[in-house]
Amino acid sequence: MRLVWNWQAVLRHAWSIRLLVVAGVLSGAEVALPLLDGVLDIPEGVFAALSFLATAGAFVSRIVAQQSVSGGEA
Length: 74
Description:
Elements (H helix, E strand, L loop, with lengths): L6 H7 L1 H18 L13 H18 L3 H4 L4
């Protein structure tokens, strides 16, 4: 396995990476939600649903050419 030649630009600019980070934070929030029971009135599954949407967005953004990452090869 080899990294792509512009892996640093991908980490900084790719929307797929950004959305995967958001999905990770939302997944962590879903795990921590029971600890905040009674403090926050957030229905169960909200963070899981938002995490799913962020992951789906990351999938779509991974296959869409992004000029800041692809170098205008759209």
